[in-house]
Design goal:
The protein has ten helices and ten strands. It has about 250 residues and is of the alpha/beta class. The strands form two sheets. Strands 6-7-8-3-9-10 form a six-stranded mixed sheet, with helices on both faces. Strands 2-1-4-5 form a four-stranded antiparallel sheet, covered by helices on one side. Helix 3 crosses helix 4 and helix 6 runs parallel beside helix 7. The structure holds adenosine-5'-triphosphate (ATP). InterPro entries: AAA+_ATPase, ABC_transporter-like_ATP-bd, P-loop_NTPase.
Length: about 250
C-alpha cells in the first residue's frame, strides 16, 4: 500500500514567456475524483489543463501522475501517459474533415495494434456508449451541439483512458443537454473506473457532479482554496470562493 496521491500538483507555476498566469499551486487529485478547475474568466484554467496534459511545461514546480513527472520522463513513459489520458478541448475536439467513425478510430489506429475489423467494433461500441449508434458516417458539421460534445467524448474514450480531461464540456449546451452530458460523464467514469478533470464555469455541473475543485484567482494569480465544492460554497474561508460558488454579483467582476 502506498500513499502516493493519484495526481499531485506541487508548487506549480505556469505562464507564457515572461507572463505568469498562476503560481504556487498545491493540491492533489484522488482516483475516481470528478475534479473541477474553477475561477473567473482568464484566470488560467485552460492554461493549467494544457500544462497538465503535456502541452505547456511549467515555469516552476511539477505535476506528478502516481509519482511520474511527464516533462522529466523519457519518450516511452510520455507515450504511456498520453495513451492513458483522454483529452477534449473546448474547440477542435473533432477533426471536421473526418466522419465520426474515422475520428473515433484515429487514436486506435495510431496507438494500438488492433485490426481494421476490431477497430470498427470498438468505434461502434464507443459511439453506442454516448448514444450515437449508427452515426459513424456523419461529419461533425452534421451534428447538433450536444451530439458534437458526445462524439468528442466517444473519441476521448477510444483508448479506455484512466484519466479524462475536459475543457468546458457543456459550453454552448442548453441546461437539459448539459445535465445529460454531466450524467453521461459520471456513468462513463464509473464504468471505466476513470478519474476526470474538468474546466468549467457551469455551477449546476460543479455542484451536482464535482467531488472536489480548485479555485484559481485572477487577482492574486494563485489558488485560493480547494476541496468539495458543496463544502466550499458554505464554508470556504475565502470570500471570493464563496461568492463564485453562490453566484454573488461580486464574483462577476473577476
Ligand atoms: N497562447 C497564449 N499566449 C499568451 N497568453 C495566453 C495564451 N493563452 C492564454 N493566454 C493568456 O493567459 C491567461 C489565462 O488564459 P486561460 O485561457 O488559461 O484562462 P481561462 O481561465 O481558461 O479563461 P476562460 O474561462 O475565459 O476560458 C489570459 O490572460 C490569456 O490571455
Amino acid at each position: 500500500m502506498t500513499d502516493t496521491p493519484f495526481i499531485a500538483v506541487n508548487d506549480l507555476s505556469i505562464g507564457y514567456g515572461n507572463t505568469p498566469v498562476q503560481g504556487q499551486l498545491n493540491f492533489t487529485i484522488q482516483k475516481n475524483d470528478i475534479f473541477f478547475v474553477i475561477g473567473g474568466s482568464g484566470c488560467g484554467k485552460t492554461t493549467l489543463l494544457k500544462s497538465m496534459v503535456g502541452l505547456l511545461p511549467p515555469t516552476q514546480g511539477e505535476v506528478l501522475y502516481q509519482g511520474q513527472n511527464f516533462y522529466d520522463s523519457d519518450e516511452a513513459t510520455q507515450i504511456n501517459l498520453l495513451t492513458s489520458w483522454g483529452i477534449t478541448f473546448q474547440t477542435g475536439a473533432l477533426l471536421s474533415s473526418m466522419t465520426l467513425g474515422e475520428n473515433v478510430a484515429l487514436p486506435l489506429q495510431l496507438y494500438t495494434q488492433l485490426s481494421a475489423r476490431q477497430i470498427k467494433e470498438v468505434v461502434a461500441y464507443k459511439l453506442a456508449l454516448v448514444g450515437l449508434s449508427g452515426f459513424e458516417a456523419f461529419y461533425p458539421s452534421q451534428l447538433s451541439g450536444g451530439m458534437h460534445k458526445r462524439a468528442g467524448l466517444a473519441r476521448a474514450l477510444a483508448l479506455e483512458p484512466k484519466l479524462l480531461f475536459f475543457d468546458e464540456p457543456s459550453a454552448g449546451l442548453d441546461p437539459i443537454s448539459s445535465m445529460r452530458l454531466d450524467q453521461l460523464i459520471v456513468q462513463l467514469c464509473q464504468a471505466l473506473d476513470s478519474t476526470v478533470i474538468i474546466v468549467s464555469h457551469e455551477l449546476p455541473s460543479i455542484m451536482s457532479i464535482g467531488t472536489r475543485c480548485v479555485f484559481l484567482d485572477n487577482h492574486t494569480k494563485t489558488m485560493l482554496d480547494y476541496g468539495d465544492p458543496k463544502e466550499l460554497k458554505l464554508n470556504s474561508s475565502q470570500p471570493r470562493v464563496r461568492q463564485f460558488l453562490n453566484r454573488d454579483d461580486a464574483s462577476e467582476s473577476q
